Hints:
mainly alpha, DNA-binding, 12 helices, single chain, 2 domains, HTH_TetR, transcription, HTH tetR-type domain-containing protein, Arc Repressor Mutant, subunit A, transcription regulation, Tetracycline Repressor, domain 2
Amino acid sequence: MPRNKEQNEEIRRQRKEMIMKGALKVYVEKGYAAAEIGDVAEQAGIARGLVYYYFKDKLTLFRELFLFMFEQSNKQVQMHFERNLPVPVMLESFVRSMYDNLMAQPDSFLFFMRMRHELHQLFTAEELNEWKWHRDNLNMIRETMQRGMDAGDIRSMSPQLLATQYWGAMMHGMMHLRQMNLELQEQGVSKTEIERMFHRDMEDAVASCIALVGPSSREKSSGDDKA
């Protein structure tokens, strides 16, 4: 029985998704220069020729992978900070979600750690000048910081600086957790013990990020005086 247009589109979507997942796995393991279409096909579990059917060459494939990852990141940040919740709650839950994703989706974290060194191999200087993935994410967080300052819920200072510091603290926490996880695995530590130590350090990392954005001691004293 012939497939209809909707069925063909669904098959196309599923195959491209398989290829994207395969390309991500290959990229975080080998980087762009060493990656081969055959590696991607093997990871995706499909024929090499099928990869070429959807992507004319390696450059096209990995450019689309990068753009897809940037788009997903922007969507995740936007959806999180558009919620109608107190700013401190959103800031803490965002850090927790990022740390949880580190364990659930380590390839995504490794992608964003690696991709900065290879952008110039996939995109022109003009394209990179217009690249705004990180800027859009920081702007969304900056706007959230401003709302929190206006409400008196977080530290009063440059919202741009605070957003940058918050992001940096979160990323340093992720790098520590990732490295700790790898070292414990190499030492043969049990999975249960690794998870216990991961969550212990995760709680400390979350607390550090939130302490960074909390009201200063001067602002707390001022609030107590008003009360």
